C-alpha cells in the first residue's frame, strides 16, 4: 500500500516520462499533408464555424439569407445603369448584364475570402485564447462561408444567361473550373498570410480592403479586355496585365458564361495561362501557410 507522498512521486515520474506534444507554434501540425490531416481531424469544428459565420451575418434580420440574393442584384443594377447606360459601356459589350455579373461574381468571391479571412483570427480571439485547435480553421471558415454565398450568386448568374436566351451550353463553360480554383487558391493563400499578420499589425485589414478595391478596377470587369488590348501599345505591358491571376480568373468566368463574347478576341492560350497561374498559386499557398505557422505561436499573447 503506497502512502500519499509515494503516490504523488509516482505520478510525477510518469509525467516526466511522458513526451511533450506541442500544441502551437511552428511545429503544430506541420505543413503540407500533415497540416491537411491536422485540419481534417477538426473538420466538425470547421463546419460549425462556417455555419456560425453564416448565421451571425444575418442575425436578427427579417430577410436573413435573402440578403445574399438582394445585395448582388442591387450591385448588378447599379453597375449596369451607371457603367452600361450612362457611360455607354453596354454599347460595345453585348449582353452587358451577363458580362459584368460574371466578373462581379468572380471578384466578389476573391474579395470575400481575403477580407473575411484577414479578420478571422481577431474575430475568434476568445477561442484562440481558451481552446486549442488548428488556427487555420479560422481563415478556412471564411473560405467556406464565401463559397456558400458565391453559390447563391452563381444561381443568379446562370438564371441571367437563360433570361437573355444565351445559356452557357458551349465547351468554353469548362473555363469556369480552373478559374474558380485560381480564385480559391489565391484567396486562401493571401487569407492565411494576412490573417496572421493582422494579429500583430491591426491596420492590415484596412489595407486589404483598399488593395481589393484597386484590384477590382485593375481587372476587366466594368470594361473589356479587348478595350485594354486596343489601348496598351506595348505587348510586354499587355502580357503583364493579362497574366495577373485575378484578370485570368475574371476572363475565365466571362468565357464560361458570356456566350455573346464567343466571337470576341481573347488572350492566346487562356487555359494554359490559368493552369500556370494555378500551379503558382498552390506554391504561394504553401509559402503563405509556412508564414502562418511561424507566426501563430504568439497569437494568444498578442490577442
Describe the protein's architecture and organization.
By secondary structure, this protein is mainly alpha-helical. The chain has one domain (31-302). It is 72% helix and 0% strand. It is built from 16 helices and no strands.
Key attributes of the depicted protein:
303 residues, mainly alpha, elongated
Q: Brief overview, please?
A:
With 303 residues, this protein is mostly helical. It has helices at residues 4-17, 33-40, 43-57, 67-86, 89-92, 96-118, 120-123, 125-130, 137-163, 176-200, 204-217, 225-231, 235-242, 245-257, 270-295, 299-302.
Please give the alpha-carbon distance between the first and last residues: 48 Å
Count of distinct strands: 0
Globally, the shape reads: elongated
Mean pLDDT: 83
H/E series: HHHHHHHHHHHHHHHH
Low-confidence stretches: 23-28
Oligomer: single chain
Q: How does the major sheet shape up? A: none
**How large is the share of residues in beta strands?**
under 5%
- How many domains? The number is 1
Count of alpha/pi helices: 16
Percent of residues in helices = over 70%
Q: Rg to the nearest angstrom?
A: 23 Å
The structural class is mainly alpha
Amino acid at each position: 500500500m503506497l502512502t500519499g507522498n509515494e503516490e504523488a512521486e509516482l505520478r510525477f515520474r510518469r509525467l516526466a516520462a511522458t513526451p511533450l506534444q506541442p500544441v502551437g507554434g511552428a511545429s503544430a501540425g506541420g505543413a503540407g499533408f500533415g497540416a491537411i490531416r491536422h485540419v481534417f481531424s477538426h473538420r466538425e469544428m470547421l463546419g460549425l464555424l462556417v455555419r456560425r459565420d453564416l448565421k451571425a451575418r444575418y442575425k436578427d434580420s427579417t430577410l436573413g439569407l435573402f440578403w445574399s440574393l438582394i445585395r448582388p442584384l442591387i450591385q448588378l443594377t447599379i453597375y449596369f445603369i451607371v457603367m452600361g447606360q450612362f457611360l455607354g459601356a453596354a454599347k460595345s459589350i453585348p449582353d452587358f448584364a451577363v458580362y459584368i455579373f460574371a466578373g462581379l461574381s468572380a471578384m466578389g468571391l476573391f474579395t470575400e475570402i481575403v477580407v473575411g479571412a484577414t479578420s478571422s483570427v481577431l474575430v475568434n480571439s476568445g477561442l484562440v485564447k481558451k481552446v486549442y485547435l488548428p488556427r487555420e480553421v479560422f481563415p478556412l471558415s471564411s473560405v467556406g462561408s464565401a463559397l456558400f454565398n458565391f453559390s447563391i450568386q452563381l444561381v443568379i448568374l446562370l438564371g441571367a444567361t437563360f433570361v437573355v436566351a444565351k445559356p452557357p451550353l458551349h465547351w468554353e463553360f469548362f473555363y469556369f473550373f480552373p478559374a474558380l480554383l485560381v480564385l480559391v487558391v489565391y484567396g486562401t493563400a493571401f487569407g492565411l498570410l494576412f490573417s496572421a499578420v493582422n494579429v500583430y499589425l491591426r491596420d492590415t485589414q484596412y489595407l486589404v480592403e483598399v488593395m481589393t478595391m484597386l484590384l477590382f478596377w485593375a481587372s476587366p470587369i466594368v470594361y473589356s479586355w479587348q478595350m485594354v488590348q486596343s489601348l496598351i501599345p506595348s505587348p510586354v505591358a499587355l502580357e503583364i496585365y493579362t497574366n495577373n491571376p485575378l484578370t485570368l480568373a475574371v476572363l475565365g468566368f466571362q468565357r464560361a458564361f458570356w456566350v455573346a463574347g464567343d466571337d470576341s478576341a481573347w488572350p492566346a492560350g487562356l487555359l494554359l495561362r490559368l493552369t500556370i497561374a494555378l500551379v503558382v498559386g498552390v506554391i504561394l499557398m504553401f509559402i503563405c501557410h509556412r508564414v502562418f505557422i511561424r507566426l501563430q505561436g504568439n497569437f494568444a499573447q498578442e490577442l
